[in-house]
């Protein structure tokens, strides 16, 4: 494999068309590495924008009584925080990783549709800026929650059509990105790279891309119906005209539940890529990991009403959705056990990417257990719309998706930049994050079980202590993320000064093609496709 790559590098020296100079390079680039970088930088900025909104929420909830913001703006913050974090931070970060890594992992020279790649990025930026602009409109930003439930959402001021159009733009961007991923994986694998030899990250993204294509039009349809209800006198969701607001919930959650798996499946892929390298063992149960990913994706389409146990579904419906939801725990459990088995008796070292990955396995499992509690319909009557729900999904998004994105950053930064990051500061960032994220979200389980509802700016006195603890954790977590920004900038500028090898991590070249190209990765990689040795599993 390495011999072929070396041959490609000589070839690369003769025909190297480097990047454009200046701002035009970034505006018009069709190079997968540049576009991946833009996605990652944009998502990091949005992570801090969404995080600032979260800190406004936690500052308001630091003690009872209205402190800083009026209730309408508070609800706008909960709504915008979710939209920015989901559509502006987590999803674009994974698309950035897909752009950077999928071609390098499968031995492709670039993505299959480079111009569309550029367009999907700029449409994302336009959509998020349009969404953010609603904060400055008369009547304020949408404040009905990120789910846009009618009839409450119909009270949104001038911002509503802009928010709906922004959602359409974000949907088109996601669909274009997904088509690109599918076309790349099916058409551009190196000779010998069969589907069952692809790294798990590529597999999870392939399945995620199909999910995106299936669900984004559903969301677009739902918000368009809201728009016509508001401006064109239709009655899709208006009981007075023969409609039903519960219909909206069904349509929305048919999108919304697979959507959370869009954010978690690539997370599983990155974890399955990092853990074997630092355990110095092949991934345990590769085939079962692939099938488990497919099973999770399939099941995600048939469990949506577990978000709606309290709307008055027929008992038979509640029973079905309860059991179907519990079923998802099985393929997820397969993954957890496989990661544990991969680490079992491995020659493990605990560099920052591995620390974040281990924290992910532990804390995601905890978030999964609370999910199992909520899948029980009778119990969910107690949990529904309480802080217990907030605790659950933040445990499946922050110590899972966000931690794995951090792990991916530390893991691939040396390959992207050619410099090693500062391990000491990386470990400090990990420990601060791991401790503070639990101070932030664990008390919210207690608040929810005690009966504190979500999306409220003021609360009864008995919830004061845990809210204060949670808010202190929030500010600790938020400010400790500045260390990550420092590390990223420092590494790009030279890091520890230590020049990294092609392999970067000991034994990594056994686990993927990206560790056989030089560090930093040249602007064009694999213009001559590498041969993949047929006996190896990546």
Tell me the name of the CATH homologous superfamily. Cytochrome c oxidase-like, subunit I domain
- What's the total number of strands? 0
Q: Structural class of the helices, strands and pairings?
A: mainly alpha
Enumerate the spans where pLDDT stays under 50 for 5 or more consecutive residues: 1-15
What is the domain total for the residues?
1
* pLDDT averaged residue by residue: 95
The CA-CA distance between the termini, in Å, is 13 Å
Tell me the name of the CATH class.
Mainly Alpha
- For the record, the CATH architecture stands as Up-down Bundle
Q: How many DSSP helices?
A: 15
What string, H for helix and E for strand, traces the elements in order?
HHHHHHHHHHHHHHH
> What's the alpha carbon Rg, rounded to whole Å?
23 Å
Provide the CATH topology: Cytochrome C Oxidase, Chain A
Strand content: under 5%
The global form is globular
For the largest beta-sheet, the strand count, sense and barrel status come to: none
Helix share, percent? 55-70%
Organism: Methylomonas lenta
Membrane topology: Multi-pass membrane protein
Keywords: Cell membrane, Copper, Electron transport, Heme, Iron, Membrane, Metal-binding, Respiratory chain, Translocase, Transmembrane, Transmembrane helix, Transport
Enzyme class: translocase
């Amino acid at each position: 494999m390495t011999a072929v790559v070396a041959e490609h590098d000589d070839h690369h020296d003769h025909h190297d068309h480097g990047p454009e100079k200046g701002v035009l390079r970034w505006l018009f680039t069709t190079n997968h590495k540049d576009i991946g970088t833009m996605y990652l930088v944009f998502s990091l900025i949005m992570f801090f924008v969404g995080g600032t909104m979260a800190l406004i929420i936690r500052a308001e909830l630091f003690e009872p009584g209205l402190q800083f913001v009026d209730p309408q703006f508070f609800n706008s913050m909960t709504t915008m925080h979710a939209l920015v974090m989901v559509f502006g931070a987590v999803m674009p970060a994974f698309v950035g990783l897909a752009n950077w890594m999928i071609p390098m992992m499968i031995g492709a020279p670039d993505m299959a549709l480079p111009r569309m790649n550029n367009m999907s990025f700029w449409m994302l930026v336009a959509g998020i800026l349009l969404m953010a602009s609603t904060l400055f409109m008369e009547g304020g930003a949408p404040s009905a929650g990120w789910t846009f439930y009618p009839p409450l959402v119909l009270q949104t001021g001038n911002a509503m059509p802009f928010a709906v159009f922004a959602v359409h733009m974000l949907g088109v961007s996601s669909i274009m990105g997904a088509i690109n991923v599918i076309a790349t994986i099916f058409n551009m694998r190196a000779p010998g790279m069969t589907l069952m030899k692809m790294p798990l990250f590529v597999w999870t993204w392939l399945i995620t891309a199909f999910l995106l294509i299936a669900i984004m039009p559903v969301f677009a349809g739902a918000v368009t119906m809201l728009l016509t209800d508001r401006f064109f006198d239709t009655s899709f969701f208006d009981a007075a005209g023969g409609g039903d607001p519960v219909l909206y919930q069904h349509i929305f959650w048919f999108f919304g539940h697979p959507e959370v798996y869009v954010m978690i499946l690539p997370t599983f892929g990155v974890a399955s890529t990092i853990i074997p390298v630092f355990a110095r063992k092949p991934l345990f149960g590769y085939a079962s990991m692939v099938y488990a990913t497919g099973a999770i994706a399939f099941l995600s389409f048939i469990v949506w009403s577990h978000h709606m146990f309290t709307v008055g579904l027929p008992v038979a419906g509640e029973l079905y959705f309860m059991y179907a939801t519990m079923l998802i725990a099985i393929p997820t459990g397969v993954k957890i056990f496989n990661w544990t088995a991969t680490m079992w008796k491995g020659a493990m070292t605990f560099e920052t990417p591995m620390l974040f990955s281990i924290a992910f396995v532990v804390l995601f499992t905890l978030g999964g257990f609370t999910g199992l509690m909520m899948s029980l319909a009778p119990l969910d009557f107690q949990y529904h719309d309480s802080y217990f729900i907030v605790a659950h999904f933040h445990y499946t998004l922050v110590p899972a998706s966000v931690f794995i994105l951090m792990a991916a950053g530390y893991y691939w930064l040396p390959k992207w930049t050619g410099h090693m990051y500062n391990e000491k500061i990386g470990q400090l960032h990990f420990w601060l994050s791991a401790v503070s994220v639990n101070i932030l979200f664990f008390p919210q389980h207690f608040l929810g079980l005690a009966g504190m509802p979500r999306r409220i700016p003021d609360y009864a006195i008995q919830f004061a202590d845990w809210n204060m603890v949670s808010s202190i954790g929030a500010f600790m977590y938020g400010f400790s993320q500045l260390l990550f920004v420092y590390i990223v900038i420092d590494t790009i500028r030279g890091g520890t000064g230590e020049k990294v090898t092609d392999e970067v991590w000991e034994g990594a070249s056994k686990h993927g093609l990206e560790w056989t190209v030089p560090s930093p990765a040249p602007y064009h990689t694999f213009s001559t496709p590498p041969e993949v040795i047929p006996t190896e599993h990546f």
